[in-house]
Amino acid sequence: MNRAAKAGFWMLDYASTVTDELCSALERRTAEPFADASAYRVRENVLRPVLLLPGVFETWQALRHVGDEAVRLGHPVHIVPSLGRNVAPIDESAAVLARYLDDHDLSSVILVAHSKGGLVGKYLMTRFDDAGRVDGMIAINTPFSGSQWGDYLPIRSVRALAHDDLIVRYLGASAAVDDRIVSVYSTFDQNVRAGSRLAGARNVRLNVAGHARILRSKKLLRLLPEAFSWLPQRPR
Fold first, then answer.
1. Which of 119, 126, 175, 207 has the most CB atoms lying inside 10 A of its own CB?
2. Which residues pair with 205 in a beta bridge?
3. Is 118:145 a contact under the CB 8 Å cutoff?
4. What is residue 136's predicted lDDT score, i.e. its pLDDT?
5. Terminus-to-terminus CA distance in the chain, angstroms?
């Protein structure tokens, strides 16, 4: 892909993100469509719960299309509003998620995460899941090796994504849960130039350009049922 094409997709991705944010604000979307589904526990004939993890500066609404599709497939869908726009440190956000899983007594959970959310999810799986509540994670355009923006933008929440950040390096060196991760990524991602391929995980590249446009892609929604099936239920 040449530079002109990359620049075009870059602008298109950001424009799409702004438009999506405006649409969310105008819709005044709440979590109510997920509430009824989230009342269920995993049992016979009920699919595993899905927990949505947004990226930095994103709310859960960035993943609402994925959540809607998961509900359509029969999965109870959970969000954690206290994450806000996911600007807290990765370890702190992972601790919040762990408390949510405990408080709601969830098990056989599948995490569906975008960008930084994938790092939070992997930290949760690595450090805070002694009870084995999480079966696995579908991580979308996650900077497992860090993002170039974290290397030079003087914003604390972005700096936490730098290649040399201690938690990013720790997660990169820890492969214990990688076989329970499906890493899905775009053909071009302006925010994760190092790529989202994760050794030991199941890696899937979709023919979609842009860091956030993939969240509204029909290709991603069509992949979800198969991706869920790639994560076997763990015994507790």
1. 119
2. 185
3. no
4. 98
5. 46
Position 220, amino acid: L
Answer yes or no: is pLDDT of 146 > 80: yes
Alpha-carbon dihedral 153, 83, 102, 182, rounded to 10 degrees: -60
Best CA proximity match to 145, nearest among 171, 125, 126, 123:
171
Are the C-beta atoms of residues 178 and 198 closer than 8 Å to each other? yes
**50-53 and 109-114: which strand pairing?**
parallel
Q: pTM higher than 0.85, yes or no?
A: yes
Q: Which residues pair with 185 in a beta bridge?
A: 205
Per DSSP, the residues of 192-236 read -TT----TTSEEEEEEEESSSGGGG-HHHHHHHHHHHHTSPPPP-
CA angle 178, 219, 137 (to 5 degrees): 20
What is the tens place of the pLDDT at every residue in 197-217? 999 999 999 999 989 899 999
Secondary structure of residue 70 in the 3-state scheme: helix
Cα 84 to chain center, whole Å?
14
Contact 222, 204 (CB under 8 A): no
Residue 178: Cβ within 10 Å count: 18
What does the pLDDT average to over 136-141? 98
| Pair 159, 108: CB distance under 8 Å | no
pLDDT of 12 above 90: no
Q: At what angle do helices 218-229 and 64-73 cross, to 10 degrees?
A: 50
Sequence length of the chain is: 236
**What is the phi/psi pair of residue 220, to 5°?**
-65, -45
